[in-house]
Write a structure and sequence with these properties.
This protein is an alpha/beta fold. The chain has two domains: 1-30; 32-286, Rossmann fold. The protein contains nine helices and ten strands. The strands form two sheets. The chain has an eight-stranded mixed sheet, with helices on both faces. It has a two-stranded antiparallel ribbon with strand order 7-8. β7 and β8 (203-206) form a beta hairpin. α3 packs across α4 (143-155) and α5 packs across α6 (207-214). The longest helix is centred in the first third of the chain and has 23 residues, at 4-26. It is globular. The N and C termini lie far apart (66 Å).
């Protein structure tokens, strides 16, 4: 004997299952960030950037400019985690490749920290002119941390409302004076008369990188910034010792310092945990 009630229940279940499966395909769980690829004129050619905005972006949405480090790019795991975390909290971000990095134009041997600062300033000018965005923050990793800190000093807290630094590589000036690059062993020549090119990490940097780093007023410029800041550094960082992060904290009176035990320069073993620190800071400082 056919059980019509049981068949009806089974049919309704199958229909509900198909609706569920179709919904997960068309509308996956969670919300995907809206990402817009931008091409912005930089100091040494065109810069490629990703503008990431929340799905329900409010008027004059806060935004964070994200700066990568030496030989890095805008798609590194730490930077993407920060951007995704900000998006989930209703804050926009723009990640970009500095000149001669990633997809941006330029020759690596012509890259210097001063022209990276100019790249970041031009990104700031582009964002400032966009009426969709309001309060602006900066975050930088390693050499990008030096860039972010010095740009913040140049622009001041009137323009930059919050700054986060990950393993800021102020060691670069000390290394240049010692005749080394980012704590890497090897004979890099006379720091007062460096060679035309130096090979490091599979890249060739130019003489101007060393000469500008030798005289770079990192802390002197960064000290001009008087707004809220967050510094994150790992004790297992062998490229930029954590003491450089501590010096920023001591210099910036409105800063908070997060020291992560046994974390390396790339913030392994827990990149998401490291990224969440600046996301929380920006939520408190920009919204």
């Amino acid at each position: 004997m056919i059980n019509h009630k049981k068949m009806h229940i089974q049919m309704r279940f199958r229909q509900a299952l198909w609706v569920f499966l179709l919904a997960t395909i068309l509308f996956p769980f969670g919300t995907e960030a809206k990402s817009e690829r931008l091409i912005i004129q930089g100091d040494h050619g065109k810069l490629v950037a990703d503008l990431q905005t929340p799905d329900a972006m409010r008027e004059r949405c806060p935004i964070v400019i994200i700066c990568h480090g030496f030989t890095g790019n805008r798609n590194e795991p730490l930077l993407r985690k920060i951007a995704d975390g900000l998006e989930a909290k209703g804050i926009a971000s723009i990640r970009f490749d500095f000149n001669a990095h990633g997809e941006s134009e330029g020759k690596f041997e012509e890259m210097t920290i001063p022209n990276e600062i100019e790249d970041a300033r031009l990104i700031f000018e582009h964002i400032s002119a966009d009426a969709r965005f309001g309060r602006i923050g900066l975050v930088g990793h390693s050499q990008g941390g030096v860039v972010a800190s010095m740009l913040a000093g140049k622009l001041g807290k009137r323009n930059i409302k919050a700054v986060a630094l990950y393993a800021p590589a102020a060691v670069i000036r000390d290394d240049a004076i010692r005749g080394s690059i980012l704590n890497q062993p090897g004979d890099h020549g006379d720091p007062l008369d460096p060679p035309e090119y130096i090979e490091i990490w599979g890249h060739r940097i130019g003489r101007n990188y060393v000469t500008t780093a030798f005289w770079l007023p990192i802390y002197e410029t960064a000290a001009l910034y008087k707004g809220p800041a967050c510094i994150v550094h790992g004790t297992a960082d062998r490229i930029v010792p954590y003491t450089y992060g501590l010096r920023y904290h001591q210099m910036w009176k409105k800063s908070e310092y997060h020291q992560l035990d046994r974390f390396d320069h790339g913030f392994n073993p827990d990149v998401p945990r490291a990224a969440a620190i600046s996301v929380d800071f920006f939520v408190r400082s920009l919204r």
